Here is the input.
Amino acid sequence: MNIAVITGASSGIGMEFAIQMDEYFDSIDEFWLVARRRDRLEKLSGQLRHKVRILAMDITNEAQLDRLVDTVQDRKAVVRILVNCAGYGIMGNFAGQPTESETGMIRLNCEALTGVTHRLIPYMRRGSRIIQMASSAAFLPQPDFAVYAATKAYVLSFSRAIGEELKDLGIYVTSVCPGPVDTPFFDIAERSGITLSIKKYTMVSAEEVVRLALRDSCHRRAVSVYSMPIKAFHVFAKLIPHALILKLMSAMKRLNNIYERTSDKR
Here is the structure.
């Protein structure tokens, strides 16, 4: 039995992957949707034409990850596609955030993603693919988004490295690095901080990001970056010393704060 495993499938980009893959991947027998919210997964499953297995679990819990592997073994499943979308970000000054919020990002964005990937690779075959959700935040350090950007830099580096390791096995890895995406992500991220206004002008839809990510994965590309502004940012982050970029970001933050205060008075 060929399966697709999607973590973080209950909302946002993970949900969009399930919807688009359901339309095009006829070779997949079952979609395995992984997230903590069973009710949301059940609602999503009702929209899909593929057979769906709902795995309501916390992937930061080792015992629950073991249950995922046990289910793969019991069903004698072959993982044809793994999409790791589970993750979250918190904006704001690092020292001012609760410790659990910051370390929780590392556990979910890095440790859990690594654990799921490592556990499922043995059940992949030649032609299987892995799609990892990174972010354009991975391209350089991000003040007021310090831990999130660091976790996504890890995802990008990790994904590119294992992509090289797995090529001989015929398993291909694509790291997806979008800019701001119009999803519930910012409902959590902005609870203690404010997104730079310029970022909101580069906001795109999850549908567009996922469509390109699937196409890039099919073409075995290591990195998928959507939209010209974010592609330009990617090049900019490679060419310009990060110290200069950080100074520019600090200046933009001051201007953004002035703009926000002015807007509040209107």
